[in-house]
């Protein structure tokens, strides 16, 4: 079997020296040498075939790892608020699960602030200011805009508030989060936010 290296990045003589060192280390002759060519010996042909198999196994192993990077599998446990979770987060995660059949979703809908590490969650989605949590990484997903509104019947009975100052005097359905009633943040003309707490909130 005749063999000649192709695509060399250094002179042919360099290959000859490398082969000689390899033969010395293995203790066998891999090539029959002439002034014009190198011919594989029986041992050389056997060694060459085994090396090809080893390189193929490496290629297969690399492909398996690359495939694992592209395909997500395993259990993903997520905590999220009830409303925004059902309307916004769950549909996105459902699409993700369809793209990755090996992904198992475990979704928890609750407005309670969970201890991510202690309760075994992989991910928690929250809206509003976040408390400092050592060892956790937070990323902003977007803005959640809210609107103040009232029914026509309520406005007929209690009147339309004419300014922000009148808002606390009205009845309100407030949002309780982490055992606290959340105040309203009203944007002002100068770009700042004014905090308003209804006097008679219904939670």
UniProtKB/TrEMBL annotation:
<dbReference type="InterPro" id="IPR005119">
    <property type="entry name" value="LysR_subst-bd"/>
</dbReference>
<keyword id="KW-0238">DNA-binding</keyword>
<dbReference type="InterPro" id="IPR000847">
    <property type="entry name" value="LysR_HTH_N"/>
</dbReference>
<dbReference type="InterPro" id="IPR036390">
    <property type="entry name" value="WH_DNA-bd_sf"/>
</dbReference>
<dbReference type="GO" id="GO:0003677">
    <property type="term" value="F:DNA binding"/>
</dbReference>
<dbReference type="Pfam" id="PF00126">
    <property type="entry name" value="HTH_1"/>
</dbReference>
<dbReference type="InterPro" id="IPR036388">
    <property type="entry name" value="WH-like_DNA-bd_sf"/>
</dbReference>
<keyword id="KW-0804">Transcription</keyword>
<dbReference type="Pfam" id="PF03466">
    <property type="entry name" value="LysR_substrate"/>
</dbReference>
<protein>
    <submittedName>
        <fullName>D-malate degradation protein R</fullName>
    </submittedName>
</protein>
<comment type="similarity">
    <text>Belongs to the LysR transcriptional regulatory family.</text>
</comment>
<dbReference type="InterPro" id="IPR058163">
    <property type="entry name" value="LysR-type_TF_proteobact-type"/>
</dbReference>
<dbReference type="GO" id="GO:0003700">
    <property type="term" value="F:DNA-binding transcription factor activity"/>
</dbReference>
<keyword id="KW-0805">Transcription regulation</keyword>
<feature type="domain" description="HTH lysR-type">
    <location>
        <begin position="17"/>
        <end position="41"/>
    </location>
</feature>
